[in-house]
Amino acid sequence: MKEYKTVSKVAGPLLFVEKTEPVSYEEQVSLVLPDGTLKRGQVLDTSEDLVVVQCFETTTGLGRDTGVRFLGETFKMPVSKTMLGRILSGGGKPIDGGPDIVPDKRLDINGAAINPYARGSPRDFIQTGISTIDGTNTLVRGQKLPIFSSAGLPHNEIALQIARQAKVPGSTEEFAVVFAAMGITREEANYFMADFERTGALERAVVFLNLADDPAVERTVTPRLALTTAEYLAYELGYHVLVILTDMTNYCEALRQIGAAREEVPGRRGYPGYMYTDLASIYERAGIIKGLKGSVTQIPILTMPGDDITHPIPDLTGYITEGQIVISPELHRKGIYPPINVLPSLSRLMNLGIGKGLTREDHKKVSDMMYSGYAEGVDLRGLVAIVGKDALSERDQKFLEFADDFENRFVRQGSDEDRTIAQTLDIGWNMFVQLPESELEKRIDRDLIKTYHPNYRK
Q1: Going by C-beta distance under 8 Å and a sequence separation of 6 or more, which residues neighbour residue 205?
Q2: Contact at 8 Å (CB) between 311 and 256?
Q3: CA atoms of 7 and 366, how far apart (whole Å)
Q4: Which runs of E-coded beta strand occur in 291-360?
Q5: What region holds the ATP synthase A/B type C-terminal domain (predicted)?
Q6: Total-model pTM
Q7: What is the structure's pLDDT at 251?
Q8: What is the DSSP letter of 116?
Q9: What's the pLDDT at 458?
Q10: What per-residue confidence (pLDDT) applies to 413?
């Protein structure tokens, strides 16, 4: 194997190598230090005169005397069913003290695009045990549904709760979780590992942890390693896999850092112009393939810089994915967990996975009524601040109380509270008692009211 010692410059995580043979984009590279130490790299850009190599580890010690070997293959992930229950680094190496993974296969981490004709329509309901998701923004198998959060909000706690509670009710099919954390602190990593081990969720999970002090370049491969693992479990072993990616903002910051090192012309707010395409190459790996048993469902989590939903990261994510779950600082300040605001939240595939034979026949109507009642109550809070509560009509006062009741009974739940979809819908019906039936009949069929309303239920 040829070894080149023609490094002309080292800039951040990048090495610039001159006078090489023709090499391919994303080809793997072995970097040999003068003391014999080996480091991994990948071809980031290639031309006739210059090859840009990104190093997956710290570039300390790299210089003009570094040897560069091109390995002739792209980054491949060793995959096996024995990965379930393992905790790996952001680069795919075991960090749980267990043995190295003995692979059944080694798969290209970039995967392959799913033929649109081969895509199956998402249909099966995934129960997360969280009422604000299951009841009003339902997650469907094969969907990509991101969570939009802000710094300091409990999105990691919500992610862990989803990871340990997610299931397909009534299904005996195998269900697995692939959890990938990017740019987290060592304290957060210890918290994640302790929670997975405490709750026993680790038995059906594969965890990837990329720490904040790990090289930014490694952050760019972590979600692809996770999705390659998920695709193997889903399409070759028949698992239904839920992939949780947190925090995609750290991933995008790594893209911006590498783009700056490459001296690329920046796009919006300094992020690379190709960030939309790059994010799409991750999010579009969720789905169902006709004729295959498994599925890949994604919940990417991102923190919105400055709580700005128009920031490029949430903005582009919203274009690619099928809705969003929005975490509210206001509800968090009230001490409500999980502080999910249902008003700006949306699941575009919700209607495909609910209803008779899937969840319950009253699901859509209950969801619409709760959303409408809460939205009206929140609007009335602004009016009360101006004219006072006593100036409201009796009807308006009932909707104002409904909004408070919605937050305290429907939204608020324990971090270990796993509600079934029936319990979630019944909470809604119990709250409807305080509203006039004439208001309910505007959105709910009379026969459903007589079947499920507490005033008629035996």
Answers
A1: 84, 85, 163, 176, 177, 178, 179, 196
A2: no
A3: 65
A4: 295-303, 323-327, 340-347
A5: 353-452
A6: 0.90
A7: 95
A8: G
A9: 65
A10: 96
